[in-house]
Amino acid sequence: MVQISEFRVVMPLSLEEYQVAQMYMVMKMQQQNTTGSEGVEVLENRPFEDDEFGKGQYTSKIYRLQSKAPTWLTKFAPTDALVMQEEAWNAFPRCKSAVIRCPYFTRFLLTIETIHKADNGHSENVHSLNKEQLSVRQVEMIDIASDANDYWSYIVGRNSIDFSQFQSEVTGRGPLLEGWQDQCNPVMTAYKLVTIDAPYWGFGSRLENALLAGERALFRESHRNCFAWIDEWFGLSMEVMRELENQSDSSLNQVMQHGLRNQLNLLVCLASC
Prior knowledge:
This protein is of the alpha+beta class. The protein has helices at 15-32, 131-136, 151-156, 204-228, 230-233, 238-272; strands spanning 3-11, 39-50, 54-64, 83-91, 94-101, 109-117, 138-142, 188-197. Strands 2-3-4-5-6-8-1-7 form an eight-stranded mixed β-sheet. A hairpin with a 2-residue loop joins strand 4 (83-91) and strand 5.
């Protein structure tokens, strides 16, 4: 059954600041999680313009996440089941990403549509859902100051910063105390609509719930990093970020290609023994 969940992530940033923060966070987290055997390979990263989104940046990436598959999933699928290709259209403040290819789960559907607004998370139906969609949509607020820690937070990679004690040296923002979402200025919210469908008898629902939990943890931890790294990215321009992003993409691809060549050479060696 198709599941629709809307995660609302409030941030103590302006929309303009968040656009830079998000790019910096994605770049740094990709670098931290790309080892050669796993991680991110960037196939395309280019400007685009169309009738649906207007102007923005298009990316196509391959994610190799084999070690992050829960143990129970390996009973139904090989270890490389979490190798997938994603397309994304970033026309900030509107963005969309979709898994377009997952070789083992060919009927699998996962899309994430995001709208960013300068509010504190209380806007309703920003995605203009119809009555049928609204009847099944689940809304969840994500508090980046929460100390929630679960299996998926561990898999994603949790930072240990206590935001009730944290204060930015550059901007003076923080700490984030109880009720901070209704008191901070500036403030903005990322409204993330996740649509997921894994129509597989016996384990489809479990896979859907596991991936929703993974997305929840990823949204929480990635946005925690956006604020935790504020003194690193604050003041950078979009032009500088694009240049850093291009350099990072090239570096990621070199790491992945080197790792894949080593794996291929090992397989050839083993086959010839």
